[in-house]
Each structure stands twice: as structure tokens, then as C-alpha cells.
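testing teh design pipeline on a random one, pls ignore if ur not involved
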């Protein structure tokens, strides 16, 4: 799976060949074909692999309260750690996403990312409402959808037109402060 990641970053989706993936490992192309008949099957397994990593990362997001965890999540999603590698991978992933309307298997795996992202943000908002750090009058479902859509859109704009992803990150972090925090929350009181 790591070799698939490296090959995707290097060649993109459209140009990727099984040989390119094999070249990133000590395995032969024939060995890859023993486990995966086609590039499509291998990429489906790769999407499953990165989904599992994504879920594991969600479970380790740190913070003493839901607002801090939401901020950390936004920061992690919208801050490239290695700009060039991030851009290459996000470009390859965007190419896979472009296939989803025509490929049910890609569609379902990508939809699972979306469902998990939404569930994570929604749960944080509900927890924040319940513990008094998030305003009780917000619609957690709609705000959760807003965050997921904005994050996904920021990643796409960053890849497609090189729009600075940190601008969206900073806007969302500011939105939390100006719109979501409960007046009684310690964070509002500290302002």
C-alpha cells in the first residue's frame, strides 16, 4: 500500500501502471498480479487502506474538549506537512474521485470517507452543545455538512487551482470562534 501511495504521487491516477507500483517495491509486477488482477482492484484496496488509516487518525485527535478536537481536525486536514507530496497525492486522489460517478466501487469507498468525516464533526458538535462549549441553537447536522463540504472543497481548490488551503483553514477556525462558541464557554470568556 505504501508503494501504491508513492507510485500514485509520482505518476498520478491516469498514468499509473502496475509496473510503476512494482518498481516502488521489491516485488515483481507478476507478484502484484497474484494478489490483484487489475490496477482497479489494487486501487480499491488502497482506498480501503487509507480509509482505515483515516479512521485511526480520527480516533487519536487530541484535545481536552470537542472544540479543541474540531480545531485540531481542521488544522490536520487543511495544513499540508510536505507541500509537494501533499499536492501530488491530493491530485491523484482527485483523479480517483473524478472516476466515482462512473465507478460504483470507487463511489462507495469515497462515500465512506465522507460519511466518516461528517459523523466525526457532527459528534463533536453534539458533544460541544451538551457540555456547553458550542451554542445550543446551532443545527449540528447542517454545520457538520458545512464543515465537511468546505474542507473537501478547499482540498479540491488547492489541487485544481493552487488556492491557498490555509486561507480556508483560518476561516473555519475563525468561524468556530465567532459563530459556534457558546457565550458561557471559557474560550469566549478568555477573549
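output:
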Amino acid at each position: 500500500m505504501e508503494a501504491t501511495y508513492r507510485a500514485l504521487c509520482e505518476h498520478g491516477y491516469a498514468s499509473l501502471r502496475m509496473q510503476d507500483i512494482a518498481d516502488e517495491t521489491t516485488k515483481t509486477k507478476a507478484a502484484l498480479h497474484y494478489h490483484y488482477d487489475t490496477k482497479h482492484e489494487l486501487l480499491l484496496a488502497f482506498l480501503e487502506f487509507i480509509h482505515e488509516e483515516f479512521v485511526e487518525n480520527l480516533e487519536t485527535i487530541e484535545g481536552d474538549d470537542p472544540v479543541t478536537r474540531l480545531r485540531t481536525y481542521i488544522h490536520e486536514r487543511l495544513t499540508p506537512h510536505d507541500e509537494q507530496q501533499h499536492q501530488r497525492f491530493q491530485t491523484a486522489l482527485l483523479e480517483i474521485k473524478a472516476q466515482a460517478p462512473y465507478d460504483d466501487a470507487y463511489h462507495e469507498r469515497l462515500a465512506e470517507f465522507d460519511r466518516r468525516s461528517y459523523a466525526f464533526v457532527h459528534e463533536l458538535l453534539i458533544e460541544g452543545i451538551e457540555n456547553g462549549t458550542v451554542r445550543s441553537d446551532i443545527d449540528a447536522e447542517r454545520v457538520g455538512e458545512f464543515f465537511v463540504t468546505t474542507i473537501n472543497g478547499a482540498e479540491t481548490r488547492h489541487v485544481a487551482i493552487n488556492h491557498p488551503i490555509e486561507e480556508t483553514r483560518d476561516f473555519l477556525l475563525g468561524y468556530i470562534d465567532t459563530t459556534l462558541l457558546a457565550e458561557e464557554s471559557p474560550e469566549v470568556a478568555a477573549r
